Amino acid sequence: MNYLNTYGWDEKLDQLKQKSIHENLPHGRVAVVHRTCYEIISEIGLFQCELTGNMMYSKSGFELPCVGDWVIFQPFDESKGIIIDILPRERTLYRKKSGTVADKQTIASYVDKAFIVQSLDDNFNVRRAERFMAQILEENIKPILVLNKADLPFDKQQVDGQIKHIISQIPVFFTSIRQPETILRLRESISEGETVVFVGSSGVGKSSLVNALCEGSTLLTSDISLSTGKGRHTSTRREMVLMDGSGVLIDTPGVREFGLAIDNPDSLGEILNISDYAKSCRFKDCTHTNEPGCAVLEAVNGGILDHKVYESYMKLQRESWHFSASEHEKRKKEKSLSKLIEEVKMRKANR
Questions:
Q1: How confident is residue 270, by pLDDT bands cut at 50, 70 and 90?
Q2: What are 28's strand-pairing partners?
Q3: Which residues form the EngC GTPase domain (predicted)?
Q4: At 72, which CATH number?
Q5: Which of 91, 117, 261, 268 has the fewest C-beta atoms lying within 10 Å of its C-beta?
Q6: Together in a domain, 81 and 102
């Protein structure tokens, strides 16, 4: 059995590698991303790799290797190498880069399931869970809602009412590190060879939950510092953990902001259960704001559709429309610039 099968390597990835001009070089998966290097788990060991100059300066930030990527590398001693190529990504989780209009940041790639961690205390925010779910479903990743700190007093009926539109679409787990059986159920939902990522805001107990899940598991990181490239492990970065008898877990730092990087705003209707009502609108291009015969507004006014879910849908759709339009405009400018550069090159060549 191929050792990397445990980390998700399969026949499709093998076929992708065979199409690369570097198919005879070793391949591996990015376990940790540091400022200056990448840790790669491979058939021949754990390598600290840097990028080629061409790759470093010719790619946008979100195109550079991220945790979960499969890469081809050139070793130059028993523990160091250079990344030569990145295999095409699938099921990649992005978010809009903070402080930008349309730039996006890569969180992890080749993800099978994404666990959205919320806590059942003052941090509980169903609107934030919807935001995570929308982005995860956009990338064909299976979302799972984890409601943590279930040992604290909370109103189960009230919580169920707030998430009833989510429960109808995705699995929901109530967990607590003080209730081992809840951790066991969560661990059993992760199959061998699967890659799962944990996302959530700061303060929801994600780190404690991940530590409980990964007890006795193998960290793939060596002791390397973020600042110098030579120090020790910290908890402020994305990293991959091989779980005993289970899958591969990618932990992520807590985020304060999770901006949508969605190219298809229309998908939000399906995600928030708006589409079933929208099909009955009088106009096909109904915006669900003030049109006569809008079945969505009728459902809201009649108390059938939760007004807060509707408001969340409108907010997320405006945000994704803005990102999509800005992304389209950015691509258009890049295409025009590339065309101009080619024209200049041709003029010089014809002189």
A1: confident
A2: 42, 71
A3: 109-256
A4: 2.40.50.140
A5: 91
A6: no
Which residue type is seen at 271? Answer: I
Where is the binding site for Zn(2+), in residues?
A: 281, 286, 288, 294
pLDDT-wise least confident of 57-61, 68-72, 189-193, 301-305: 57-61
* Closest to 298 measured CA to CA, from 278, 318, 268, 284: 278
Residues 282, 322, single domain; the answer is yes
Following CA atoms 230, 232, 233, 239 in sequence, which dihedral angle do they give, to the nearest 10 degrees?
Answer: 10
* Residue 145: burial class (beta carbons within 10 Å; 0-12, 13-18, 19+): buried
Q: pTM of the predicted model, to two decimals?
A: 0.81
- Same structural domain, 242 and 102: yes
The structure tokens listed for 336 are 């025009």
For residues 43 and 90, is the Cβ–Cβ distance under 8 A?
Answer: no
Exposed (0-12), middle (13-18) or buried (19+): which is 142, by Cβ within 10 Å?
A: middle
Examine residue 156 and state whether it is found in any structural domain, yes or no: yes
pLDDT value at position 83? 95
Q: Which two tokens stand for residue 9?
A: 């390597």
Binding residues: 148-151, 200-208, 281, 286, 288, 294
In contact, 166 and 306? CB cutoff 8 Å: no
Distance CA 301, CA 64 (A): 47
Pick out the residues of the known binding site for GTP.
148-151, 200-208
Q: For position 217, what pLDDT does the model report?
A: 56
**Domains identified in the chain, total number:** 3
Helices (H), the chain: 11-18, 53-58, 126-138, 156-162, 164-167, 180-188, 206-213, 267-271, 275-278, 295-301, 307-350
CA atoms of 250 and 259, how far apart (whole Å): 20
What DSSP letter does each residue of 318-344 carry, written as one string? HHHHHHHHHHHHHHHHHHHHHHHHHHH
Q: Are strands 218-219 and 239-242 parallel, antiparallel or unpaired?
A: antiparallel
**25 and 118 in one domain?**
no
Rg over CA atoms, the chain: 23
